[in-house]
Amino acid sequence: MRGREEVGASIDFAPLRRERTSSRAETPSSDCYPVRVAAPQAPVGNLLAISDLHISYAENRDIAAELEPESESDWLIIAGDVSEIVEDFEQILRLLAERFAKVIWVPGNHELWTHPQDAVQLRGEHRYRELVGICRRLGVLTPEDPYPLWTGEGGPAWIVPMFVGYDYSFYPPGARNKTEGLEIAYASGVVCSDEFLLHPDPHPSREDWCSARIAETERRLSELDDAYPTVLINHYPLVREPTDVLRYPEFAQWCGTQRTADWHRRFRASCVVYGHLHIPRITHHDGVPFHEVSLGYPREWRKHGHRHGLLRTVLPSGTTARLRRRRTAATTALAAGSARALRLTHHHPCGVAPAESALADRNAHSGAVLHALLHLRRDESPAASFTSFRWLPS
Ligand SMILES: [Fe+2]
C-alpha cells in the first residue's frame, strides 16, 4: 500500500473511517462526511506546451505576454517559431522564464531565418548557437543542455528538447526524391521561405544539417536511462501522418524527416510535442499522443479559435485545462484546511459505489492517482466546502 504522502492532495482517509461513529442518517447526506485534511504537499505542477507564437504579429505578442502558469511549479515547453527577430525572441523568453519554474525551447525555422529586417545577420549554425547563448543567459533549456527529468505529475519522464530539422523526405504525391519534390513545389508555386532565408552554413545543405542533428540526437537518446519514458519535443512532427491534412501537400517536404518515424517507439515516448503545421490537435501513433501545440497566425486562430486552450497540458496526460484549474483550486482549499464536508463520488467500472465503499476501495486502488476532483462552488472562497471528489485510475 502506498503511504498517504503519495496521494496527490494528501487527504487523510484513515481517521475518517475510525472517527465516524454516527449513523449514516445523522450525516448531512448519505455521502457527506467530516474529514480531517492533512497539510498538502507542495504543488507538483504541470508540463505545459505551446509553439509558433509568431510574436511579430501584435496580437500574438499580446497573447504571449499574458501567458501565465497556474502553479509555481509549472514548466513551459516552447516548440519553436517564437520570432524571426532576435531582440523580440529574447524579450519574450525573458518574460516567460521569470514566470514559469522552467522554460524549454527548441528552434523553429523562423528563428533560424536570417531575416533582412533583423539586426542579427548570423546564418545557420552560428545563428542557432547565438539563440542557445541567449537561452542560457535566461536560464531557458535548449537541445544543447542535459535532458531534465520531470518529476511532477505524470512523471518521472525525461524531457527531451530536440533540434531535428527536415530533409525533404516527406515527398509530395508523384515525387520519388528531393529533386522531383522541389520541382513539383516550384511548379505549383508552393515553396517554403526557408529556401531563401534558412541558411545551413557551415553545412553543405539543410538536409546535411538535419542528418548531423539526427546522429547527435540519436546518440544522446540512446544513452538515457531507459527506466523512464520520454517527452520528445521537436518543431516538426516526428512522423509524416500529421502532414496528410495539409492544404498544400507540396509543403510536407519542409515538415520533417522519415528518419524519425520510429523514435516515439524506440525511445519510449509517453508523448510527442511539436508545432510548425499550425494545426493544433492531438493524434495518436502506435498509441502515443502527438500534441501539435501551435498558436499560429492571427488569421488562423481567429478562424478556429483556441480549441485546446492556449497552453496544452502534456503531463499529466489526459488532463484538460479545466480539470487543472479545478485541481489548483482544490489544492488551495486543502491548504486552507477547511474542508468541512466532502461528497465522495467513486467512479468505478461497475458504476457509482456508495461513498463508504469508495473509502474501502481506496486501499485496493493504492495505485490510483487523485486528480482534479474537487469542484468548488463558484460563489464560495477556496476556504469553503467541496462539493465532489473522485478517484481516477492512474
Ligand atoms: Fe510557424
Strand arrangement in the largest pleated sheet: 7-8-9-10-12-11
Percent of sequence in beta strands: 5-15%
Radius of gyration: 24 Å
Helical amount:
25-40%
Largest sheet: 6 strands, mixed
What's the CATH H-level homologous superfamily of the largest domain? Metallo-dependent phosphatases
Bound molecules: fe (ii) ion
How many beta-strand segments?
A: 16
- How many domain regions? 2
Which segments are poorly predicted (pLDDT under 50) over 5 or more consecutive residues?
Answer: 1-40, 337-394
Question: In CATH's first tier, which class of the largest domain applies?
Answer: Alpha Beta
Shape: globular
Question: Which CATH-level-2 architecture of the largest domain?
Answer: 4-Layer Sandwich
Q: Distance N terminus to C terminus?
A: 15 Å
Number of helices: 12
CATH topology of the largest domain: Purple Acid Phosphatase, chain A, domain 2
Describe the structure.
With 394 residues, the protein is an alpha/beta fold. It has 12 helices and 16 strands. Strands 7-8-9-10-12-11 form a 6-stranded mixed β-sheet. It has a 4-stranded mixed β-sheet with strand order 6-5-4-13, with helices on one face. Strands 1-3 form a two-stranded antiparallel ribbon. The model is unreliable at 1-40 and 337-394 (pLDDT under 50). The structure holds fe (ii) ion. Fe (ii) ion is lined by residues 52, 54, 81, 108, 110, 276, 278.
